[in-house]
């Protein structure tokens, strides 16, 4: 019968320590995400008067280049609809009223 070690080894640090972003790279990523978010919020603000009453509390996924959006009560369904039409593009997701924002499907060339 095997005995378990009495002391547990605590591992600390990054999973991939060889991948370290410089402060400049971090700032560029933040700026890229902010610019993307701003483009999506413009579309959301334009849509809000017509969809807020009917779809309050639902999720909306926005693709800013085309202006397309996908609405559903379930975040996964809204995200799936967006991924089916735009599989390789980043999308912006919002839950009405609580402003939950997620970034998914980032273009491969962005990283």
Describe the model:
The chain has 111 residues and is an alpha+beta fold. It has one domain (24-106). The chain has helices at residues 23-51, 75-85, and strands at 59-63, 68-72, 91-95, 102-104. A four-stranded antiparallel beta sheet has the order 2-1-3-4, sandwiched between helices. It is elongated and about 65 Å long.
> How far apart are the termini?
48 Å
Radius of gyration using CA atoms only? 20 Å
Q: Average pLDDT, to the nearest integer?
A: 78
Q: Major sheet: size, sense and barrel closure?
A: 4 strands, antiparallel
H/I helix tally? 2
Spans with pLDDT under 50 lasting ≥5 residues?
A: 97-111
In which range does the helix fraction lie? 25-40%
Q: What structural class do the secondary elements suggest?
A: alpha+beta
Please tell me the total number of domains.
1
Secondary-structure element pattern, one letter each: HEEHEE
Shape: elongated
Proportion of β residues? 15-25%
DSSP summary, beta strand count: 4
Strands of the largest sheet, in order across it?
Answer: 2-1-3-4
Question: What's the oligomerization state?
Answer: single chain
